[in-house]
Amino acid sequence: MHNLTIPIQDQTIRELKVGDTVALSGVMITGRDAAHKWMVETFIKKTRDPQGDDQQVYEVLKGILAGGAIYHCGPVVAGLDTHEYRFVAAGPTTSAREEPYQGDVMRHFNIKAVIGKGGMGPKTLAACQEVPGVYLHAIGGAASLIAQSVQRVQTVYKLEFGVPEAMWVIEVRDFPAVVTMDAHGNSLHAEVEARSRDNLERLLARGLR
Amino acid sequence: MQDLTSSFLKLIRLAATDLPPEVERSLRAACERETPGSAAAGALVTILENVGLARQNSTPICQDTGTPIFYVHHPEGWSTRAIRAQIRDATAQATAHAYLRPNAVDSVSGKNSGDNLGDDYFPTIHFEEIEGEGLTADLMLKGGGCENVGAQVSLPSVQLGAGRDLAGVRKVVLDTVHKAQGKGCAPGILGVAVGGDRGSSYYASKEALFRSLEDTNPDPKLAALEDQLTEEANQLDIGPMGFGGQTTVLGVKVKSMHRLPASFFVSVSYMCWAYRRRRMVIDGAEVTYS
User: Fold this and answer.
1) Residue-range definition of the domain harbouring residue B261
2) Which candidate from B101, B144, B175 shows the least CB-CB separation from A200?
């Protein structure tokens, strides 16, 4: 078990290998479909002009994400009426949808850890080698358990994206995950995909019993 | 007609927070099959711990509380308009109680309604009039991750070498499980419909998921197909969460439908391990949940 503290050093990232379990602590931010589209279009590809509080949020994000972690998560949040926010359920969402954006976002903000489920593809794996960074797999559906590692919700940005899509700034302690893509070009997802493809082809060659 | 709003609220809470015992049993059996200390075993241990915690604290098992899909079987004379209004009211209350995440997003504006009430399709409510006095309501909460990995194929498929028969159906299902990898939160449960049109076929694939995980298909040919598919999907070595391992699916449920001579659809609805479904039966003043 590796205990990781945000911000994470390059040396620490390079020591991590596919299959390692980690407990992550520090301040991180949630971001999924709407957030990634917004970050890329507004600040990386700049195909859309910043509007409203976009620029202010960007400045804050740069601080949180440098050496930090982004969590693909759309939480269930209590205290929406009182603004005393509390995560009730907070498991990972499927990361593959961020594949078109993630590598560019990692490089732009110097993100060291992308947390989600289901794994990501070659673009993100390449960024993990360059930045360097890792993909951390949380257990999909284990939402009540993972919410217990969220000590406090500091604040929320882009709540207009909706509760699941907003960017929640959270303090976590011993957030549990497994390294499934490392900074050395290894991906458990690519391995399992290839192995299961061979198994599929063997099965497809057979018929009904 | 009685006001069932508070009963529907309890049904939603149970579905979101209390995994059916048969599903938990199946996950425990899977956990015992995996190699101790493997990533697959670790994932299942975490899953089971989470199931217990969610039940104990009445908090959602998974944060993606999905599309609430209701099937209401009601006696003659009950107002489906009134029941629909009560279900919608209960859904909004469940969201305010944080049993459900606000999940209804306007596809054009991108705006989340905030209370899980969308158009006529959100929540999804099916009504069927039945004989007798009692009302039965089934609810399934189906998350987006697993819904996204479902598939529909019009047979024959040259690519899969799949013809218009049960052998072809088998190939489509195995291919769908392979394509899903861990993205649908394996180990999954597959609802498969054979036949129908595109709409009715997907609809039936979800209905198949209301069957018990532990039952046997009354049609011997389909029962054999279900057993073979479960066994073979578990030989793919995708495993829990796609970490590799012996448990890729917990079960397969196949439903056959009449079709047009020209069409042979196979529709697969993939349900994640968090197989959240509950039933409520109202008979006079008595309300029971299972």
Assistant:
1) 145-271
2) B175
What is the complex's ipTM, to 2 decimals? 0.96
pLDDT on residue B283: 92
Residues B138 and B251 in one domain: no
Looking at beta carbons, which residues of chain A come within 8 Å of B244? 188, 191-192, 195
User: Which parts of A48-206 fold into alpha helices (H)?
Assistant: 54-65, 99-109, 122-130, 143-147, 188-204
For residue A180, the surrounding DSSP H or E stretch is strand A167-181
- Number of folded domains in chain B? 2
Cis geometry, peptide bond prior to residue A7 (ω within 30 degrees of 0): yes
pLDDT digits (tens, 9 = 90+) for A129-182: 999 999 999 999 999 999 999 999 999 999 999 999 999 999 999 999 999 999
| Active-site annotation of A, residues | 36
Same domain? For B218 and B265 the reply is: yes
Pair B285, B262 in one domain = no
Going from the C-alpha of A143 to that of each of A140, A178, B14, B18, the distances in angstroms are: 8, 16, 16, 13
Question: What pLDDT score does B2 carry?
Answer: 85
Q: Is A17 on the interface with B (CB under 8 A)?
A: no
Task: Measure in Å the smallest separation between the Cα of B244 and chain A Cα atoms.
Answer: 6
DSSP code per residue over A26-46:
EEEEE--HHHHHHHIIIIIS-
CATH of the domain at A47: 3.20.130.10
- Of A169, A31, A22, A160, the C-alpha closest to A108 is A31
Length of chain A: 209
A21 and B CB contact within 8 Å: yes
pLDDT in tens, A71-98: 999 999 999 999 999 999 999 999 999 9
Q: Is the CB of residue B250 less than 8 Å from the CB of residue B23?
A: yes
Average pLDDT for residues B10-25, to the nearest whole number?
98
Contact B185 A191 (CB under 8 A): no
Q: Quick one: tokens of B230?
A: 């479960």
Tokens of residue B176, six digits: 């769908």
What letter would DSSP give residue B106? -
Q: Note the pLDDT tens digit of each residue in A134-146.
A: 999 999 999 999 9
Here the CATH number for the domain that contains residue B117 is 3.30.360
* A118 in a structural domain: yes
A19 and chain B: CB distance < 8 Å anywhere?
yes
Token digits of residue A72: 């693909």
